[in-house]
Amino acid sequence: MEGAKVLQYEGIHCKLTIERPRPGVAVVRISGHDLGEFGDVALRELEKEIAVHGQIELFVDARDAQSASIDLSSTWAIWLAKNRPAFKSISMLTGSRFVRLTADFVQRFAELRGLMRIYTDHALFDSS
């Protein structure tokens, strides 16, 4: 994310936005049905931010996401588990029940309890 404040990707089923509002903070916004059409672009961008700052705060705003593929969820879970020490905190806002279940899976699989907070209340997430 070097030098970039906002990266946007639009696909057939999904929209992905990666923002860096301030150093050491990354916001990933996902809307639609995330079937993995952007590959690992978000993970690569987060790795760049981690390389610069060592540890980051990650916010995932999935309030407008309807679903995520199992393969994609597994990829994120494995990547987060591998990079766990690089996060000061992880906050995720879910909008649909399916995305909430996906977030719970990722949290459990990557052993992120205590580090990852899952929100269903937009106001609480937006104020964090």
Relative strand content? 35-45%
Shape: globular
Q: What is the count of helical runs?
A: 4
How far is the N terminus from the C terminus?
A: 22 Å
Strand and helix order: EEEHEHEHEH
Count of β-strands: 6
Helix content: 25-40%
Summing up helix and strand content along with how strands pair, one would put the structural category as alpha/beta
User: How do the strands of the widest beta sheet line up side by side?
Assistant: 1-2-3-4-5-6
Radius of gyration, in Å, reads 13 Å
Integer average pLDDT: 93
Largest sheet: 6 strands, mixed
Q: Unreliable segments (pLDDT under 50, ≥5 consecutive)?
A: none
Describe the structure concisely for a colleague.
This protein is an alpha/beta fold. It has helices at 41-53, 70-82, 97-109, 122-127, and strands at 6-10, 14-22, 25-34, 56-68, 87-94, 116-119. 28% of the residues are buried.
Describe the structure.
With 128 residues, this protein is of the alpha/beta class. Helices cover 35% and strands 38% of the residues. It has four helices and six strands. It has helices spanning 41-53, 70-82, 97-109, 122-127, and strands at residues 6-10, 14-22, 25-34, 56-68, 87-94, 116-119. It has a six-stranded mixed sheet. Helix 2 runs parallel beside helix 3 (97-109). The protein starts with 5 loop residues before the first strand and ends with a helix. The mean pLDDT is 93.
